[in-house]
Write a structure and sequence with these properties.
The chain is of the alpha/beta class and 328 residues long. The chain is built from 14 helices and eleven strands. The longest helix has 35 residues.
């Protein structure tokens, strides 16, 4: 005998099971690797993004963040992303130059007048937008930029001019531009993984390094180098990337949520970066005894001028450098 109530109950049970199955299939977990620790502004900004993605997708997309190079250094992470073995990673324009030449535009020394000029270029669809999209078809896609501050030299002695760099082994990122810049300034560039730098400075494998001031405290480099020379030769953005294979797993709605959250995190990071940098500079001075050395930037600018001229003449990055110059 037909039991209407039982039929309806069975139908509802089946619908609930089907809905649960679809929901389960829709859930995606993305692993995100970076080389900083949990107290770093970039980690906090990416965690804010992950929280927003979870909220916007009703828990369908979960981003799990792995700090401190636990899934590999930046170079290794890039190779894993290209193959689809890793979902997301934070790299920077310096290292990305080896994967996509357009990122080399950001690596030209003294390209940006100041932070305002820098953000104008990053937020310009014809500059920052096109560079993020330039790797489509190469295994990964750029989602957003994070301010990584201006990079300066730090060592066991003050560096007040390019003359003071002569004969020094300076740790640089594995970037053609970083190598060329350091050579033009008279030093010997030494590419080295960021995680290995503390020991290399401590043991004299390298004499100096170049980075933003937070490296002094967050990576404890101020324990082994006591002079931070504010030449501010480059302002190179960090870049948040996603593997094209992982991107393809997301629905169009999920992709839009990830893009939106990434864009929001860039702007919240802007304020967070300034606040935390000021705090870390104070800590480096008061706790570690690091001396911040004011320098005349002009000799440094003149030393690397050939790079700017060369960049303008380059058929790939020249048009972008010209557009950035025009925003001054």
């Amino acid at each position: 005998m037909f039991n209407k109530k039982k039929f309806i109950a069975l139908g509802l049970t089946g619908l609930m099971a089907a809905t649960l199955s679809v929901s389960t299939l829709a859930k995606v977990t993305l692993k995100l690797s970076h080389n900083n620790n949990k107290s770093h502004p970039v980690h906090i900004s990416m965690q804010n993004m992950a929280d927003e993605v979870k909220e916007l997708t009703n828990g369908e997309v979960i981003i799990r963040i792995y700090p401190d190079s636990t899934l590999g250094n930046q170079r290794e992470s890039m190779e894993l992303i290209q193959s689809g073995s890793l979902d997301m990673a934070k790299s920077n324009a310096s290292e990305l130059e080896a994967f996509e030449p357009l990122y080399g535009a950001f690596n030209v020394p003294y390209l940006f007048k100041d932070t305002e000029h820098y953000y104008k270029a990053l937020l310009d669809p014809e500059i920052g937008g096109k560079i993020l999209a330039s790797t489509e078809g190469k295994g990964f896609i750029g989602l957003t930029y994070y301010d990584a501050g201006s990079r300066s030299f730090y060592a066991k002695k003050p560096i007040r001019s390019p003359e003071d760099l002569k004969g020094l082994k300076v740790r640089v990122q594995p970037s053609p531009s970083a190598l060329e810049m350091t050579k033009l300034m008279g030093a010997s560039p030494t590419p080295l993984a960021f995680g290995e730098l503390y020991t290399a400075l401590q043991q004299g494998v390298v004499d100096a390094a170049e980075n933003n001031p937070t490296a002094l405290t967050l990576m404890r480099h101020g324990e082994v180098t006591k002079f931070f020379s504010e030449d501010e030769h480059t302002i190179i953005p960090d870049v948040l990337l996603i593997s094209e294979k992982s991107w393809a797993k997301l629905t169009p709605e999920q992709q839009q949520a990830v893009k939106l959250a990434a864009a929001h995190s860039m702007m919240t990071h802007k304020d967070l970066w300034v606040k935390m940098t000021d705090e870390e500079v104070k800590k480096a001075q008061e706790t570690l005894g690091v001396e911040f050395v004011k320098v005349d930037k002009q000799p440094f600018v003149e030393a690397v001028k050939p790079m700017h001229d060369k960049a303008l003449a380059d058929p790939v990055i020249g048009p972008y450098v010209q557009k950035i110059d025009a925003l001054r």
